[in-house]
Amino acid sequence: MPGNLTIYTGRNNTMNGVRLDSQAPEPGLSAQSESIATIGGRLVEVLSVLVAQLGDAAIGPVALGKRLGIDKVLASRLLKGIRSGDPFSAVHRLPGPAPLRRVVDAAEGQGVAAEAIAAARSAIDAFDDLIRSNAGDRSTLETLLSAWIPEARREFELRRKQAAFRAMSQLRGVEAETNTATVFLRPNPDIPTMIDVVWLNGLFGLKRLRPGAPVRFATRRIVSTPTGERMPVSLEGSRVDDLRGLLLPQFCSSPLPELEVSRYDNVVKYALADDGQVGGTKDLVFCEANRAELPRYLPKGSQRRTYFFAEVQVPAKTLVFDVLADIDLFPEGAPTLRVYDTALEGIASVNDPSRDGDIYDMNEQVDALGQGLAGCRTERVPRCMAMLETVVRTLGWEGNRLRAYRCVIDYPIYGSQVTMLFAPETR
């Protein structure tokens, strides 16, 4: 068999989009990825021949499973792998060596030609050696494949994030179904050079998994401003001594959750009071308004960015992070996304290049939802539209002037900082 592999699209003399010949490999392939591509292409070639010899039994996974005496899931993975059209995708989708050997043994019993059986066994042995010599196990191989296959990367990240969620929720003794953070932004009407910042935060399906487990979260401002110490007020603009007035009772569970609050300079820390219950779920929604919180303009030529972030402070199955900005803000368009690891140095400023090494390389994204509140509907957040409309109506803002952006993350990493970066106006 020739030693190099070239990937083609739209060419003749190909097998499922893969051609084995003596030409140079695709530019940019490392020796390791070249081995994966070669073996993946060979698996597609020989297993396609083997399955084709089973005739009508290869039409679908149910028929193939009955013919070979294997379960439908294994048959489905086999067919998806050989029909994937790409050697990397084939290695990702195909079953492991042991299940593939069961398939070949069953095909031999169904009268498939000895030459096809021998070729399949040889290719599977090479696949087995690839896993052992290059990765050590199938899980590590999937880590390698995630660098080249978007589908593999999404599956890889989701499974690892889910495992991390399970571990951290057990260790912390608390979890939530949904963590939502929505920031409303507009120029301050009295000080047009400053931005009003209003945060709507919610934890839905919040529960303690063991007695006394602490449930803590915080809101904070990173930059210093002429307004001095951060003093959040209610939606109506009222100062509240213990900040209990920031809760939105109509969206919280009953009885109303008790919050313990403390201030440290520009950080406001919240803790859910211990009621001695374990297992029961709570919904906690609160909103804090910060008038003239941030400067609207940054120095011209500074290359600095304006940014807003949500912290994953409670292990949650879903994070929904929205930015709703007045159309007069951020004229250069949609934000970019960064997810920071805060374990080493805490909350990150996007304008600090030393924190670039803390950015997770992950497959998350920001979606533009359009102008107005209508595009913000989601089943992931209970009574989502009612909450947004309540905030806008109480503030006296015009909802149709708000441009919305959303980042949804399944199983967000505990301790991470999910950040949207905007190109600000400068002066």
Could you characterize the architecture of this molecule?
The protein is of the alpha+beta class. It has two domains: 4-148; 159-426, Immunoglobulin-like, CATH 2.60.40. The chain has nine helices and 16 strands. The chain has helices at residues 31-52, 61-68, 72-82, 87-93, 97-109, 114-135, 138-145, 150-172, 384-395; strands at 4-7, 18-21, 174-187, 194-208, 216-220, 259-264, 267-272, 282-295, 297-298, 306-311, 316-326, 336-341, 367-371, 402-410, 416-422, 425-426. It has a six-stranded mixed β-sheet. It has a three-stranded antiparallel β-sheet with strand order 5-7-6, with no helix packed on it. Strand 3 (174-187) and strand 4 (194-208) form a beta hairpin. Helix 3 packs antiparallel against helix 4 and helix 5 packs antiparallel against helix 6 (114-135). It is elongated. The termini are far apart. The model is unreliable at 1-28 (pLDDT under 50).
Key words describing this protein structure:
427 residues, alpha+beta, Immunoglobulin-like, 2 domains, 6-stranded mixed beta sheet, 16 strands, elongated, disordered N terminus
In terms of structural class, how would the helical and strand content be classed? alpha+beta
Radius of gyration: 27 Å
Q: What's the helical proportion of residues?
A: 25-40%
Number of helices: 9
- CATH fold label of the largest domain: Immunoglobulin-like
Give a summary of the structure in a few sentences:
Helices cover 30% and strands 27% of the residues. The chain is of the alpha+beta class and 427 residues long.
